[in-house]
Amino acid sequence: MTTADPSAPALVVLHGGELPPGRERIDRHPGLSEVRYATAEQLTEALPGARILLVWDLFTEALTAAWDTAGSLEWVHAATTGVDNLMFPGLVESDVAVTNSRGVFEGPIAETVLGLVLSFAKDLHGSRDLQRSHTWKWRESERVQGRTALVVGTGPIGRAIARMLTAAGLEVTGAGRTPRTGDPDFGTVVSADPGEPGGIGDALGDADYAVVAAPLTDATRGLFDARLLARMKPTARLINVARGPIVVEEDLVRALRDGTIAGAGLDVFEAEPLPDSSPLWDLPQAVVLPHMSGDVVGWKDELVRVFLDNLDRRLRGEEPRNLVDKARGYPRG
């Protein structure tokens, strides 16, 4: 929709077929000269002259292929927390600013992690399976209070998880880039480098739950492989609410089958949707979620609100929120 000011920036909304809710809030924004909606196939034609790109197609890599036509682009906003799909060399090395939607998903994801912890401790998923077969099987469950959790990733999502698990009575430690003590949410943070003495490898040996909440970067891709999984207790469970490729799926399947670890709660996978052929569907120790840990009623409206808030800030010449450090692949702070 064109406004009275032709010098205002043009916006492209990259979508996968589903448009943002209440799109009139975007279409009628007085600070935009034009709003173009494009699918991945249409992006190359839509980008020329556009200064802003809203990536509403959450996991697309279409911008990589269309980058040669993005000569006017100044700002890319991702309607996600993870921006690994945007961290290709052309964009990383350019002057184009990238922001994400930090602040939308932290609480819901933390609630999902707590739900998975409770499900494992109280065998809720096992009870559901027994109910379906009309089987009355008494057994003892585990306490949550006093158990230990290692949260890998000390950003806002990891911190929300730490606070939620601490409130439930777990003792929480973090693993991140910078080891430290006295952290307000984790207490102790160990190095996430598996080769570092006293780091994540040693900490896993004490954890009842290992929660993956780190961004997907070169340093975290394949982090949880057979060697790191072998450092976990045989009674421990792995929970991944970050990105699938952080965990080597083949190694995880083997660890579950061999009893190296006791269970896995998985919201993300190497390939999504999870293929029908994946053994994870049928492993009784695995809980499979369809990448929904952060998606609660109203989340898409909140994503639009975050984008419009940053758009207004940009048009006023203010620093945008959630500015991504492209060298790291996530916002600082």
TrEMBL record:
Keywords: NAD, Oxidoreductase. CDD domains: 2-Hacid_dh_1 (cd05300). Residues 114-293 form the D-isomer specific 2-hydroxyacid dehydrogenase NAD-binding domain. This is D-2-hydroxyacid dehydrogenase. Pfam families: 2-Hacid_dh_C. SUPFAM superfamilies: Formate/glycerate dehydrogenase catalytic domain-like, NAD(P)-binding Rossmann-fold domains. The keyword Endoplasmic reticulum does not apply. The lineage of its organism: Bacteria, Bacillati, Actinomycetota, Actinomycetes, Streptosporangiales.
